[in-house]
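Continuing the series of single-chain predictions for the mutant panel. This is the parent chain; the variants come on the following pages.
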Amino acid sequence: MPKVQFGLKNVHIAKITENNGAVTYGTPFALPGAVSLSLSPSGDENVFYADDVRYYVIAGNGSYDGNMVIAMVTDDFAKDILGYQEDATAHVLAESGDIQPSKFAMTFEIQNDEDARRYVLYNVSVSRADLSANTKEESVEVQTATLDISCSGAIDTGLVRAYTTEETPAATYEGWNTSIFVPTL
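Parent structure:
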């Protein structure tokens, strides 16, 4: 059993298509340059009081909110997820004021003291990335892009996230970024 974790890599994105409540995941594509991922559980706790005590507690476990920092937004991510349109002749990407980002599944890997643990988030929403730059001085400071993300349960299964364990078969582990794994529960 792993005791510590560190690092973030192998981020892959798979666009979600919904049709009459059924979810289809596109082929995952790499989103290189992952710097950090920070997600916190969100959801309210409902407390029912009886007999002058906390008699029953219902914890909300519907989603995670946070951000992901990446080196830069790739053209594939801008087109497939953020909804940028490409001028076919000039190959210029344009952002329209009325586009809505697409939902997607995201796989990634976090190292630990034994084997890397691979994760999948099933229903991710993203906001547009910040745009910032600074002048170059004596030393170069790399600029990054921060994406605010929210992860909730998949429409068809309710699954929020999953990850591999030491007992995960090699075929499942090795194929983690080629398609979105949906467990049979």
